[in-house]
Amino acid sequence: MTSDIKFIFFDMGKVLLEFDHQRLIDQVAALAKKPGDEVEQILFQSPHDLENRFERGELNGDQFHRAFCEVADCEVGKDDLMLAVADIFWLNTSIVHVLTQLSYVNFPMAILSNTCEAHWDFAVRHFAAVGQMFRQRVLSYEEKSMKPDGKIYQAAIALAKEITGCEPGEIFFTDDRQENVDAARQAGMHAELYVSTRELAEQLRQRGVPVTG
C-alpha cells in the first residue's frame, strides 16, 4: 500500500512526553519561597503571563529570569529557575515503538510544539526520543507563534516542503488538543487528536504509513 503521507509532525507535550503542570508551579514556588497561587498567577495569568510569553518567544531565558525575579520580588539563580520550570516531563513509553519503526525506515518526521527554551533544552538532554529521533522541529518560541495560530502551521508546511517537496495534504499531525488539530486541518494537513498510541498507529496505517502499535 502506497502511503498518502510523506511527512509526520508530532506534538511534544502529552504526546511524546507526559508532563505535570502542577509540578512546575510547586517547584517554582518552593524555589522562590512564594505561595503556589501567587506563582501560578505570575506565570500563567495576566498581566504578567510569563510562561506563556516564554513559549511565544517574547522572552528569552535571561529575560524570563529577570522578569520573574522582579515580579515575584525574589532572588533565584537562573539555572535553578530553568530547572524548576523544565523538570516536569517523563517519557510516553508507549510511543517509542512507533517512533522506532518510523526512524528505521527514515520516514521524514519532526516535532511541532508550543514550548519554551527551558522545556526544549531539558527534553533534548533527557529524552532520546526527542533529542535523537528528531532532527527537525518547529517550536513556538523560535517561530514566535503558538498553536492554534496559523503562522506556526505555515512554518511547519514550509519545513516539510523544503525537506520532501510534499504538499499540506501529504502531511500528518497529531496533537492532544482539539483546537490545534482543527487548525492543522484548516491549514490543509491531515490531523488527528492523540488519545493513545494504539489509535495513532491505526490512524497512520489507514493512511498507508507502515507502523504497528
TrEMBL record:
The keyword Hydrolase applies. Keywords: Hydrolase. The keyword rRNA processing does not apply. InterPro entries: HAD-like_sf, HAD_sf, PGP-like_dom2. It is an enzyme of class 3 (hydrolase). Its EC number is 3.1.3.-. Gene3D superfamilies: HAD superfamily/HAD-like, Putative phosphatase, domain 2. SUPFAM superfamilies: HAD-like. One of its GO terms (molecular function) is hydrolase activity. Signal peptide: none annotated. This is Alpha-D-glucose-1-phosphate phosphatase YihX. The gene is yihX.
